[in-house]
Amino acid sequence: LPTPQVEARTLAMLQGLLQQLHAACSHLAAGARAFPSSVQDTAGHVRHGVESVQAALGSASSLRGLSGPALARSRAAVTRAQLSLEGLLEHVGQHTPLPWLLGPFAPALVEYPEDAPVDMSKWEGCVTVG
């Protein structure tokens, strides 16, 4: 059995990780506003799943204070959130233009005729796609 100090540190670390995860999910949900409503809904489901885990585990004063059903609900919420995130990433990967994902700091994607010479020195350090 873990000592009370180890248990308290473990619980504090878990609660801190949940706070970070919630902040990331809130940021994701806010960023999803540019996507279709189904993607926005998925991002919201992920955030709510994390919130439910936070509610279940956040009020615990010790690991022993967590009931089996609360842990099972938390695990199910995390699994649903993970599946939702996988679906969200799949949607973004299939339906979002590459320049939009890379942002304004990515080098421009330019097509050249096959027989035109390309000065590769200006592309040094860039990652090629394809």
Automatic annotation (TrEMBL):
UniProt keyword annotations, A-Z: Lipid droplet
GO cellular component: cytosol; lipid droplet
Pfam (any one): Perilipin
Gene3D superfamilies to which the protein is assigned, alphabetical: Flagellar protein FliS
InterPro entries, alphabetized: Perilipin
Signal peptide residues on this chain, from the entry's feature table: none
GO biological process: lipid storage; positive regulation of triglyceride storage
Main location: other
Subcellular locations according to the entry: Lipid droplet
KW Nucleotidyltransferase (keyword) present: no
Family: Belongs to the perilipin family.
UniProt-recorded name of the protein: PLIN3 protein
Protein source organism: Oxylabes madagascariensis
